[in-house]
Each structure stands twice: as C-alpha cells, then as structure tokens.
Amino acid sequence: MSERDGNWRTAVIARIAALTPRMRSYFLHAPLAGHVAGQYLDVRLTAPDGYQARRSYSIASRPGAAELELAIALQDDGEVSAWFHEVAQPGDTIDVRGPLGGHFIWEPPHAAPVLLVAGGSGIVPLVSIARAWQAAPAAPMLLLHSARTPEALAFQPELAGIAAADPRFTYVAVSTRAGTGRRIDAAMLDKALGHWGHLPALCYLCGPTAFVEAVAQLLVARGVAHRAIRTERFG
Amino acid sequence: MSTRGFTGRRPGADAARRLPPGQQQTQDFPVLSLGPAPAINLDAWRFTLRHGSRPLASWNWFEFNALPRTRWHGDIHCVTTWSKFGTDWEGVTLDDLLAAAGVQAPTSFLLAQSYDDYDTNVPLADLAGGRALIATHFGGEPLTPEHGGPARLLVPHLYFWKSAKWIKGLKFTERDEAGFWELRGYHMRGDPWREQRYSDDD
C-alpha cells in the first residue's frame, strides 16, 4: 500500500456481536479522528488480486467511545456485507476512512425537541444520536423505529432502557409484519406526537427511500418546515 | 494488503470498463438528498440565470419548455459508490440558455442553486459545450419529485451531487465558490474517473 492512499487507515475488528438475525455489530479499533453522532465510515475490502469493494456504513457508537461500532445488515446478494457476516472474525483488519458526513449529524447541547425516525437498519446513525443525547440529555427526544418483525428491531433493549431512565427520551418501536402489525402512518405519527406533546424543531429520518419520503411528507403536512427535516436514505 | 477471505464479485468485462474506481453498478435509481422533495408548483416555477446578484435572464415553466431541447444517453456515477448505466435524459443546455438570453458567459465559474436551498459549484468548462443539461425528463418521462423534478441539473461526467435537484437557477461567480457539500469536505470538482470524492483527494 502506498504511503499516500487517500487517507485510508487500517482498522482491527476487536469483537462482533449479534443484534438481530440479519444485523451484527462490528467493534473496531481504528486510528481515526473522533466522530459526530450521525456520521459514517467508508469501508474498503481488497481481494488477493487487488480488486477492491467499498461501502459506506453508519457509525452506531457514541462520540468519544473507545471502540467504533459499525452495525451492518446482511444485504440480499451483498458483496461486502456477506464478507462481514460470513467471514469476518475478531482480529481481521479492514481499510476504513472517515468519519464522513456533515449534514445528517446531531451535537448536544440542543435545546429544541428532536424527532428521530428509523426504518429497518436505518436505526444505526440514530442510535449514535440517542447515545450522544444520553451522555448529555437536554431537550426532549422522540425515537420512532419501524421494522418488519419484532426480532428486527435492533438496539431495542438499550433504547427502551434510555427511555425508562429518563422521561425526556421517548422510544416507540413498531413492527409491520408481526406482533403489533403497525407501521408509521399518519394515525400512528399523530398518536406518537400527541403523546409526546411537542412539535419537533429538528427531524432525522433514515431508512429505505420510500419510507423516508413518506414520513417526511407526513411531517411536512403536520407543519414541520422542509429545512427542519434531515434525511438519509438507502435502497 | 488483501482482506482475509475476501474474493469479491467482479463486474463483467463491459461493466468493468464502464465503472470508475471504487464504483459498483446498480439497477435501481437510489435517491439521495438533504431532506424531503420540496413541493414545487409549476405555475410559480422559474429558472433564473444570474451574474452575482444581477439577473441576466429568467424563464417561467412555459417559456423554459419552449427552449431548444437536447437529449443525453449514458452512465451516471454517485459519490456513494453506485453507478447507473445507460440512462436517458432530456433538457436544455447552458449553451442554449445563454443563446436565448443573448449573453456571453461573464465568468468561468457557476453555482447551481436549488429550491431546497442546496447549492453546488461547477466550472463553466464542465457545463458549456453541451456537457450539461437542465434536465426535465428522465427515461422519456417528466422527472419525478424525488429525482429532482420538475427540473434538475445534469452534469453526467461528474459525481452526481453536482447534478443539483430542484434547480431554480445558475449564478455566475467571480471565483470558484464552494457549495453545500463542498463546504462539508467534498471535492471542489468531483471527477469520478480521478476519484475526486473528498477535499483531500487529488
């Protein structure tokens, strides 16, 4: 590897933890600058013949945490996520660069109410935001997470714990195909915002494109300004 | 040094030739933007060409659609590593806008400005000579809001964050002024074949 290599650094996978049937956390030791909640890393894998594949993954860990946590969902037909799920072991090294991203970020202290909405694995950057909030709780925060099944609600015990410990943090999790059989629609959003009792001053939406766009339009229809809604989409 | 146990999935020969470094082919058309698609009423839509704060020319939707139209077919590349092959676009070139306005380009740099307050800088050399469009159609259909409709910039030879969605104008600037992402660590030009993703890339 050349000395100048686009700021790529070598990270070591320190440990791996299962989150859901299709999602695992990879805890990295990486010589990178500190991140802001909501940012992501670029990850690069290299085959013996020099072929490289690159993906971006959101950071789940709290800013300042000793290990960088990437929570990676196994994609159907995934090239890089399949390596993480089927090959990666503690001690393996990967190339990383970042942290990256300067818009979908949240930094305390923040006085105004914040709404976080995640679809599926879109929860990852919002977990980092929730953890950053927990380290310096101030304004009310409402986190809505929608996944297909109850088992797919990654980070549920921890997020429920944050909510149980501090009434300023509200956590609502729904699954669309089992259990409660609910999705984040107009009625559900009205109910959640009504219970919460705030109009969000800032919203962070992350998930599949159609999900993010639908929730964004519901929020706009409820009087939230376009520029108060920050989005991150995939697929 | 290679990654233990990673063999990767090679693109076919045609895709390998067409993919800039670090890119992968997608069959989808992913959506990336700062926030939700703004609601734009075509009756109120305008496209304005400016030199600094001074308007050079302005078109409403009806007038804009009466301008000469140009089609472009080819591959597009997003900095988030997806590339989409064989896309079809239709719109108006900057050359035709300048001709319709009856003016010469007053400076060598521009800022594309959007209805959602997004902006991005593009040198004149990357917009003129038919290299870019103000696109109103994709795949023969009017551009949908999530893909930037009613009109977006299309600069297909640069990373796609330069192809500003929901465009409302182009502003000539005296210097190369950084736009939204360029102020947040992205490259000032963004050539995918030179892999100019971030400001510290060559």
Condensed summary:
The complex is a heterodimer of chains A (235) and B (202). Chain A is α/β, with parallel strands linked by helices.
> Largest sheet of chain B, described in full?
6 strands, mixed
Work out the strand percent of chain A.
25-35%
**Biggest interface, chains and residue tallies:** A-B, 41 and 37 residues
Please, what is the average pLDDT of chain A?
A: 92
Quaternary: heterodimer
DSSP helical segment count of chain B: 4
What sort of overall outline of chain A do the alpha carbons produce when their principal axes are compared?
globular
First-to-last CA distance of chain B: 22 Å
Structural class of chain B: mainly beta
Shape of chain B: globular
Mean pLDDT of chain B: 94
Quantity of strands of chain A, as a count = 11
| H-E order of chain B | HEEEHEEHEEHEEEE
Q: In total, how many beta strands of chain B? A: 11
What gyration radius of chain B follows from the Cα positions, in whole Å? 17 Å
How much helicity do the residues of chain A have? 10-25%
In whole angstroms, the N-to-C terminal distance of chain A is 32 Å
Largest sheet of chain A: 6 strands, antiparallel
Give short descriptive properties of this protein.
heterodimer, A: 235 residues, alpha/beta, six-stranded antiparallel sheet, five-stranded parallel sheet, B: 202 residues, mainly beta, six-stranded mixed sheet, five-stranded mixed sheet, 4 helices, 11 strands, globular
Describe what this molecule looks like in 3D.
- The complex is a heterodimer of chains A (235) and B (202).
- With 235 residues, chain A is an alpha/beta fold.
- Chain A contains five helices and eleven strands; from the N terminus they run E-E-E-E-E-H-E-E-H-E-H-E-H-E-H-E.
- Chain A has helices at residues 80-86, 123-135, 156-165, 186-196, 209-221; strands at residues 9-20, 23-29, 40-46, 52-58, 68-73, 93-100, 114-119, 141-147, 169-175, 202-208, 229-234.
- In chain A, the strands form two sheets. Chain A has a six-stranded antiparallel β-sheet with strand order 4-3-6-1-2-5, covered by helices on one side. A five-stranded parallel β-sheet of chain A has the order 9-8-7-10-11, with helices on both faces.
- In chain A, strand 1 (9-20) and strand 2 (23-29) form a beta hairpin.
- The model of chain A has no long low-confidence stretch (mean pLDDT 92).
- In chain B, strands 1, 4, 5, 8, 9 and 10 form a six-stranded mixed β-sheet that branches. Chain B has a five-stranded mixed β-sheet with strand order 3-2-11-6-7.
- Chain B is mainly beta and 202 residues long.
- The A-B interface holds A 1, 6-7, 44-48, 50-56, 79, 83, 87, 92-95, 100-103, 209, 212-213, 216-217, 219-220, 226-227, 229-231, 233-235 and B 1-10, 22, 24, 28, 30-39, 80-81, 116-117, 146, 180-181, 183-185, 195, 198, 200-201.
